[in-house]
Amino acid sequence: MSKKIKAVILSCALAAATALSVSLSACNIKTKHPGAKITVEFNSTEYQLDYTLYRNMYPQTVQHFIELADAGFYNNMIVHNYSTSSDWFTGAYSYDKDETLKYADAVSTTTYAEYLEKNAKEQEYYDLAKTDDITPTVFDYASVTYDSKGKAEVDKAGRLPTLIGEFASNNHVIEKNGLTSSFGTLKMFYYSDEDDINKKAAILNSFDQVLVHDYKYNRATSVFSMQMGASSSYSEANYCVFAKLKNEAAEEKLRDLMEAVSDYISDNGLSSKFTTTVETVVDTLDSYSGTGGIETKFTMTYTPIIIKSVQITKY
Length: 315
Hints:
Oligomer: single chain
Number of domains: 1
CATH architecture: Beta Barrel
Distance between the termini: 44 Å
Shape: globular
């Protein structure tokens, strides 16, 4: 083999090795604005919604969302709480094509409650939250200790399966250009109960500081909402708004989805049959709050709105 050919082969090998190194390094790069694609299916048509995530402002929430998405947790779920002009909620119940309930006068709300109970992903979430795939941010208050200089520390064994609340009511303040509750934004949601108003928990923030805060603001799990109107009662003051639609094309896709739902209701004469109110209990496995579950009501759709997948497109 000539020296020239050997040189070419060596050069190509080095280039390939360099490319591989760059590729592997890119997997570990954390950008200020990761990207996500949420694919929603309604009436057999898919709508792909592109989002920009704001890690630079809400790092713990974005990391939590990415970890759940990477674990495939958000795939094949239903919008379990629907509104025509406010927020759609998902992230808690699977879609079961063999048990999907269609609009019909004979279908009772009890049947829907049974569907939610059977397809709840709470246990799956709790099991996942115990693993290293999910970064812990909330801990049992009893796990806090102090070093010789008075600095708070936390025993990682005291981790709770909930998420820190990165919003103003929980003292997470963005001085400039923080996200506000607006059309298309994603919010991490949590349920609250009066019984835990005085409950304390330790939180580990993005500065590696251990702080003691009210547990009621630090109990989000996997539920998130998509804001479907210009305004919402779930504002950035009390809920972490961590992502928004990437561009005008993404906004148009979301409006197309909303229009498809509206047309479906109109075309099938479903003004009074598209939804039903269902009473259920959430957070049944939350032993830390001591509530034993929180009673709530959902507005469910007879024809499912399905979250086919949540994919992270940029890290």
